Amino acid sequence: MNTLEAIEARRAVKHYDPDFEMPAADVTKLFDLALLSPTSFNIQNWRFVVCQDPEVKKRLRAVSWDQAQVEEAQLTILLCAKLDAHADDPDRYWANAPEATRAMLVPMIGNFYNGNDGLQRDEAMRSIGIAGQTIMLAAKAMGYDSCPMIGFDPEKVSEIIGLPDKHVVGMMITVGKALKPAHPRGGQLPAGEVVFTDGFPG
């Protein structure tokens, strides 16, 4: 399946075959692709908690409005981010770049983010969103379905996964083999209502 087909075919699937076993190689491939998602200054601030243990998924379901897909999908993924990743040995983000590039970019990272908590959180959510779409499109291209979720208690989820300080949970994504297709699309707004040229209409 090519990228355009994956975009058109991707839907939020709520029902998964709980007996299907996803090959370990597919899990590895999915996250190899997720790690190619872009981040500002290449800080790679996303952190992925991949839940496959039935007991962990059961606990997550209990704090996610009892949504069955949390427990029944093959993977329940918590997309998190490290808020201060910009300060976490930033030289390594450009370790393979030419010296001149490294010398220019690395000092810029701290100057951009230091002391700006709002920007750090905004950057975390941007990175999580981009990576989330990568995961969902890659999963679809690999023959799996997915569901992006915000219907959970973030504090309780943080406790279950042991979220460290200076980290944030942004969203949950389930991935697996669909047991039932998604409902028909609810209704797309017309492009003219949401796509503008060179600015908003006066």
Tell me what the structure shows.
With 202 residues, the protein is of the alpha+beta class. The chain has a 4-stranded antiparallel sheet with strand order 1-2-4-3, with helices on both faces. The longest helix has 25 residues, at 117-141. The N and C termini lie far apart (41 Å). The chain is globular. Helices cover 42% and strands 14% of the residues. It contains 8 helices and 4 strands.
Tally of DSSP helical segments:
8
Largest sheet composition: 4 strands, antiparallel
List low-pLDDT spans.
Answer: none
How many strand segments? 4
Order of helices and strands: HHEHHEHHEHEH
Task: For the structure shown, list the relevant keywords.
202 residues; 8 helices; 4 strands; 14% strand
